């Protein structure tokens, strides 16, 4: 596999009941990317995933977009299997996930660091034996009042949020493309100026 291949994994849970929840915003983002590169997801049995492959443009890096068939907290096995199968090192893995600590409608990017209680990130770091993969943190904000964060992320977006969701997903897809084409620092500068840290 070319050294220019990147693995972009949209984190989420399988099944129709989770499809439009905050926890699945990562999978929604890779759907946007698949549309941009004209690729469709198909089962990839060896890795327990659905995969779509394509190029941003002729001569550009190859994108391997993936969604695990399993639940969020078991994301690591499929990601490690995809890295092995496609020959992608951890530093060219981008995990796209929901982030409670980022306000809705904002995007933050980082490489490495802790998992902040996010079970999908925890499992990927364990399976790859390193936390040094890239993360596109798609802001979903904190739950209102005393609502349990787990219930909040497994719930659907509010009607107000749904109006802005398409723009948020396009931004998240732009952030993924930015990481591939411009690197972390340049892409952080582009997105982090939009909202207060």
From TrEMBL:
Tagged with keyword Cytoplasm: yes
Marked site (Stabilizes the basic form of H active site to accept a proton) residue numbers: 98
CDD domains tied to this protein: PTH
Site (Discriminates between blocked and unblocked aminoacyl-tRNA): 13
Gene Ontology annotations of biological process type: protein quality control for misfolded or incompletely synthesized proteins; rescue of stalled ribosome
InterPro entries for this protein: Pept_tRNA_hydro (IPR001328), Pept_tRNA_hydro_CS (IPR018171), Pept_tRNA_hydro_sf (IPR036416)
Gene3D superfamilies for this protein: Peptidyl-tRNA hydrolase
Function: Hydrolyzes ribosome-free peptidyl-tRNAs (with 1 or more amino acids incorporated), which drop off the ribosome during protein synthesis, or as a result of ribosome stalling. Catalyzes the release of premature peptidyl moieties from peptidyl-tRNA molecules trapped in stalled 50S ribosomal subunits, and thus maintains levels of free tRNAs and 50S ribosomes.
NCBIfam families recorded: pth
Assembly, per entry: Monomer.
Name of this chain's protein: Peptidyl-tRNA hydrolase
């Amino acid at each position: 596999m070319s050294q220019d291949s990147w693995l972009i994994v949209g984190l989420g849970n399988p099944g129709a009941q989770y499809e439009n929840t905050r926890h699945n915003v990562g999978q929604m983002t890779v759907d946007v990317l698949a549309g941009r590169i004209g690729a469709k997801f198909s089962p990839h049995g060896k890795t327990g995933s659905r995969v779509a492959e394509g190029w941003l443009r002729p001569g550009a890096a190859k994108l391997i977009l993936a969604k695990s068939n399993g639940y969020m907290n078991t994301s690591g096995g499929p990601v490690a299997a995809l890295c092995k199968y496609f020959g992608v090192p951890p530093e060219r893995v981008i995990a796209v996930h929901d982030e409670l600590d980022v306000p809705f409608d904002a995007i933050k990017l980082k490489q490495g660091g802790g998992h902040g209680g996010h079970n999908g990130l925890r499992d990927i770091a364990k399976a790859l034996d390193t936390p040094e993969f890239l993360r596109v943190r798609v802001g979903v904000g904190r739950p209102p009042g005393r609502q349990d964060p787990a219930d909040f992320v497994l719930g659907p977006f509010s009607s107000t949020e749904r109006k802005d969701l398409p723009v948020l997903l396009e931004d998240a897809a732009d952030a993924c493309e930015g990481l591939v084409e411009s690197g972390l620092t340049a892409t952080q500068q582009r997105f982090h100026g939009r909202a207060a840290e």
